[in-house]
Amino acid sequence: MKTFKLADFQLIGEDGLTPVPFEDGLVINQENEENTWLIEIFLKKTDAERFRLADKDEIFRVQAIITKRENDPAYFSVKLVSYTEMDDFATVLFRGKLSGSRNYYAVSLLECLLNQNLQGEELLEAFKEGMKKKLAVRAPRSED
């Protein structure tokens, strides 16, 4: 197993990406035959309400940035494994698999910039800035 610090966590929905504020989090590659990953987030109960009410069979599509915010996002399809409350906080544990390609963010960012009719040096600078800041782009579709 390999464990990583969670730097950013967002839900992927029909309306795009929804940030989930959290206090701390871990991403664990179980390195098993099923290629499963665990994501655990520690957050304020007020930010955890959607997970408290979630059905355990519901599939969440999420974008996670691992270790440093400068890293490319990883895309997962996950299910809720457990929800535990402690005072004003909660821990939420998900299990799932990676989805989408490794270079998805770069391709999506480039598509977004091309749709803005950027060209040449302007396109290059906007692309570099987007890769550095991890600007929000179109969330991946299920088939990506």
From TrEMBL:
Protein name: YwpF-like protein
Organism of provenance: Caldibacillus debilis GB1
Pfam families membership: YwpF
Superkingdom, taxonomy of origin: Bacteria
